[in-house]
Specification:
This protein is an alpha/beta fold and 215 residues long. Helix content is 49%, strand content 17%. Helix 6 packs across helix 7. It is globular. It starts with a strand and ends with a helix.
Amino acid sequence: MRIIVLMGPPGAGKGTVSNRVADRLGCLHISTGDLLREAIAQVTPIGVRAEVCIKRGELVPDDLIMALVEEQFDRRGDGGYLLDGFPRTLTQASLLDACLAARGTRVVAVIELAASAEVVLRRLGGRRICASCGAGYHSLFIPPRKPDSCDRCGGPLVQRLDDRDEAIKRRLAVYAKEMAELRPYYEERGILTVVEASGTPEQTAVGMLQALEGR
């Protein structure tokens, strides 16, 4: 079982790049955010517990996140996995290590995508969604044909609360605090590589693949 961990601030392009790299490596891309949303939508036991925490404004406990990931390992078997945004804490990292050790394997590489606050603000701050149908746009990269109007249904385009500048800055601060603890954990093992992510998704993917050669 080959395990690769991908980390990076919001707006670094983890989701987009993960799919490209996972396809080329023959790995399964696992996003804990996607797994959580799926579990909640399907009203699974883990999803029910996670939703209670979210509605209370609490973080989903580390053991629930780990349980979601472990379910994927059990379901998919011994293959390659690219973990997108997990682990995010030292506790999650320890839980992952214990889980993998029980399976006779370990994390072989950790990639941290690096993008400046300016790049992140430009990427996330330009995102808009249609209030009617949920279609996504970006003022720079995927602009609508008519300003502030959805191409698909004509509905109004709005900015998510967590894509506003102050919210983005708070998210970046949280990420910096998490990484101040987590980065040394993987640096000491010599498996952490920083890849520049300010360019195009293809450029970032190439940088990741180069960093993963021989891993």
